[in-house]
Design goal:
The complex is a heterodimer. By secondary structure, chain A is an alpha+beta fold. Chain A has three domains: about 35 residues, no CATH class; about 70 residues, no CATH class; about 70 residues. Chain A is built from six helices and seven strands, in the order ββαββββαβαααα. In chain A, helix 3 packs parallel to helix 5 and helix 4 runs antiparallel to helix 5. Chain A is flat and about 90 Å long. The longest helix of chain B has about 30 residues. The radius of gyration of chain B is 26 Å and the shape is elongated. In chain B, about 30% of the residues are buried. Classes of the chains: A alpha+beta, B alpha+beta. Chains A and B meet through strand 2, helix 1, strand 7 and helix 3 of A and strand 4, strand 5, strand 6, helix 3 and helix 4 of B. Strand 2 of chain A pairs antiparallel with strand 6 of chain B.
């Protein structure tokens, strides 16, 4: 597909691809020819009175890390979530999935709770274990951050309601089995 | 930490395991791939987007016609069934099949969208129809222009071809791309034919009588698979395509003339009283000949197809 001939770009009618014979519309932007924007180079320390980078003592410090307070040069400073991180703090926060701007995945505990409360209900008896698990997950992760995109707590409410209903029904069945005299069930 | 505000760009493109959806942030696009209990994210900063490529994909009219024919055929079985429940089942499922095709047509022409940055080319699956693609390009172009500058129509030679070639993005060789796009669907089709040959043989020979009830399912699988292999652009050779089309034709012929008649009699027999059941034989052939004919063409095409596919793959790997 790429590179596309320059005369085919930004044409409303597009062009017909010689390989697949299908019409292709290509919208190119200045970044294609401009290339990647490089960051600013670090500055050298000029005198002993200047603060130096924790990781590169020969470089002048540009800013402190918002987490650990170490001074870092322009080469080391990483901006994310409107904060400045040093490489070590960034690596640990990234590993712990704590930076919104760069996290790659999130677990949807409300979906986990809902699935746990509904799917095992088909087989009835697993509810003995999944019902309390649903309530535990709901309480533990109630305030945990959800997905990046907007999402309500309706799944948590549904999960709790399903789990409570299932556990109540199962409890009733167990109570009935223990209380009703056995002969009245099948042997009148 | 407050989450970044996002605006919905496309509807959810649902699949078996979850969905994908595009959202627009203040300075980037967010591609969300949900696996129900886990969401995975990919971000594309407006300053890094180099191009948006929209391809007008084939509309698969052949497949749509085939799907409607299959649905009508399926629904017509309801006419031959006396039970109201069975009749309702066949008609409702057939109507659902037709509604699916009509909905597919109503959603408009198909499109394929690829977003290109300096280091990646990502296919955006939620942008799969013309209207969505038009809206997407209009919205994203505006956002990218506000960061990168105005996009102007390029005249031939407006920028040097060399400026494109120096980009780090290296296009894959055509042969490798073809083999990647091809997938294993042809092999699955030919393997299914082998498996079906055994089932058809067992079913018609009445070794296990209930096996005949599987034949309608077998036909459906063969129709769908051979239809997809025949009409979808998968970079297949002419021989494999011819085998797939032959499978489609023989499968339809088999339903209407040879073993299909036996299968549908068996299905209808299940709804009849024992004394009203009809003997299993095709319109034109004896039971033995029916079994040989319907299992035979499957074995022959399956063997030819598997062999050819294996030879092609070995040649490409070398």
């Amino acid at each position: 597909m790429w590179p596309v001939p320059p005369e085919a770009c930004n044409r409303e009618e597009g062009f017909v691809c010689p390989r697949c014979s299908e019409r292709v519309h290509v919208t190119v932007f200045p970044a294609l020819t401009r290339g990647g924007a490089a960051g600013l180079p670090p500055e050298r320390v000029q005198s002993d009175t200047e603060a130096a980078c924790f990781f590169h003592p020969q470089n002048r410090a540009a800013s402190p890390c918002d987490l650990c307070g170490r001074f870092v040069c322009r080469l080391c400073e990483i901006q994310a979530d409107s904060k400045i991180f040093c490489p070590e703090c960034f690596a640990s926060a990234f590993k712990a999935n704590k930076i919104n701007e760069v996290d790659k995945n999130r677990t949807m505990y409300d979906s986990v709770a809902l699935a746990l409360s509904t799917l095992p209900g088909i087989f009835v008896w697993p509810v003995l274990f999944t019902g309390p698990s649903t309530i535990f997950i709901t309480i533990k992760y109630w305030k945990a951050r959800g997905g990046i995109i907007p999402r309500t707590r309706v799944r948590y409410y549904l999960a709790i309601m399903c789990a409570l209903a299932e556990m109540t029904a199962l409890g009733f069945v167990i109570w009935a089995l223990t209380k009703i005299p056995f002969r009245t069930l099948g042997n009148p | 930490m407050t989450p970044a505000p996002y605006r919905k760009l496309t509807r959810k493109r649902r699949g078996i395991t979850g969905y994908t959806q595009l959202w627009m942030g203040s300075d980037h696009l967010l591609l969300v791939h949900s696996l129900r209990v886990v969401e995975r994210y990919k971000r594309f900063a407006f300053r890094d987007i180099e191009a948006i490529v929209i391809t007008e994909a084939a509309d698969a009219w052949g497949l749509r016609a085939l799907a409607i024919l299959a649905a009508v055929g399926w629904g017509s079985i309801g006419l031959a069934v006396s039970s109201y429940g069975a009749r309702a089942f066949f008609w409702i499922t057939a109507l659902l099949g037709i509604a699916f095709v009509v909905l597919d047509i109503a959603r408009g022409p198909r499109r394929k969208c690829v977003l290109k940055t300096a280091i990646t080319s990502e296919q955006l699956r939620p942008v799969s129809r013309k209207k969505t693609a038009d809206d997407f390009v209009a919205t994203v172009s505006q956002a990218v222009q506000s960061v990168q500058g105005v996009v102007e129509p390029l005249e031939p030679g407006h920028f040097e071809p060399a400026s494109i070639q120096v980009q780090p993005m290296a296009p894959e060789p055509p042969s490798q791309e073809t083999s990647n796009n091809r997938g294993y669907l042809p092999e699955i089709l030919f393997a299914v034919l082998f498996f079906d040959a055994a089932l058809v043989w067992v079913g018609i020979q009445s070794i296990f009588r209930n096996v005949t009830g599987l034949l309608p399912t077998i036909y459906l699988a063969e129709l769908v698979l051979s239809g997809v292999v025949s009409f979808r652009r998968m970079g297949l050779g002419m021989f494999v395509k011819t085998l797939a089309i032959a499978t489609l034709v023989l499968c339809v012929a088999d339903i209407s003339t040879v073993s299909g008649v036996v299968a549908f009699k068996e299905v209808m027999n299940t709804t009849r009283a024992p004394q009203d059941r009809v003997p299993l034989s095709s319109l034109f052939l004896s039971q033995q000949a029916t079994a040989i004919a319907s299992a035979g063409w499957r074995v022959v095409i399956g063997a030819l197809g598997i062999t050819k596919s294996l030879v092609d793959r070995l040649a490409k790997s070398k």
